[in-house]
Amino acid sequence: MAYAITASVPGGADVLTRAEITPPTPGEGEVLIRQTAIGVNFLDIYIRSGLYPWPVERDLILGSEGAGVVEALGPNVDGFRAGDRVAYTIPNGAYATHRAVPAKMLVPLPDDVSDIQAAGAMLKGLTAYYLLHDSYRVSAGEAVLFHAAAGGVGLLAGQWMAAKGARAIGTAGGPEKVALAKANGYDEVIDYRAEDFVARVKEITNGAGVPVVYDSVGKDTLQGSINCLQPFGTLVNFGQSSGPPEDFRIAQLAVGSLYLQRPTLFQYAASRAWLERASAALFAGIADGRLRINTTTRPLDDAAAAHTDLEGRKTTGSTVLIP
């Protein structure tokens, strides 16, 4: 039986309910996928809660990454056929057993990358790719501060920075998450619950600070992130798990002639050339072992509980829902 997890109005995790659906008929340029694995991300929570704009009138299907098997092709689709294993990352619609996806947003999965790995890595892995290669190109020997180092993006970023030869400094909450981040490429991990991360970064860098900070936490860390930067440094804010930094003023950047970015994955992924290049790099890293995908699987029916655990910062790595 085909079904989806839907939300009729913005709100808490309890707005998520199961609903039977009819598998869609793929339209022009679309591919029908029977989904086998679906990733859960903070983006889903931002949208579900109403923090980000609600994109439909009612019955929104959340979820922005998944993997599965091609079941049918719409008109004018080239490059795919029934039975192909594929993956994607596009906004909303993933919490379902079946969905139609524009072929231009699909990438084929190589044999040495599993569906669960792909569903746990497409959004997070491609985010890590653009952060480290496009928002700011991290170089060997550079000290880099990355918040939420034990999260899905943070773990992949740590491994990727280690492969690039950077000196990765992470923050995480609690000894278990600190240990996990250290096992995934970070040279130094600061327990923000027990230490002042700004003071520790200055100590680690002999007072110099870092040229770039990657911050997906927002309100709780943004000012500290600014204080960790070298003159002419770059702050890349790509999320706000602790809430929006409402007191931030542009004038705060004048302390060091700093640069501020607020990039989003889907603008990068709209370029087919970028999507193919970035996903090829991601899959190659998974296949050769440079990138290990830390996943926890749950039934699709557990989507609400998965949201609650993610919001409560009780998870590490990637949560993947199995229909």
Automatic annotation (TrEMBL):
Alphabetized SMART domains for the sequence: PKS_ER
InterPro entries: ADH-like_C, ADH-like_N, ER, GroES-like_sf, NAD(P)-bd_dom_sf, QOR-like
GO molecular function, one term: NADPH binding
Keyword Translocase: no
Translocase as UniProt keyword: no
Enzyme class: oxidoreductase
Enzyme Commission no: 1.6.5.5
Keywords noted in UniProt: NADP, Oxidoreductase
Domain Enoyl reductase (ER): 11-321
Gene3D superfamilies per record: Medium-chain alcohol dehydrogenases, catalytic domain, NAD(P)-binding Rossmann-like Domain
Pfam name, any one: ADH_N
Superkingdom classification of source: Bacteria
A GO CC term attached to the entry: cytosol
PANTHER family cross-referenced by the UniProt entry: QUINONE OXIDOREDUCTASE PIG3-RELATED (PTHR48106), QUINONE OXIDOREDUCTASE-RELATED (PTHR48106:SF13)
Name of the protein described by the UniProt record: Quinone oxidoreductase
Organism, scientific name: Candidatus Rhodobacter oscarellae
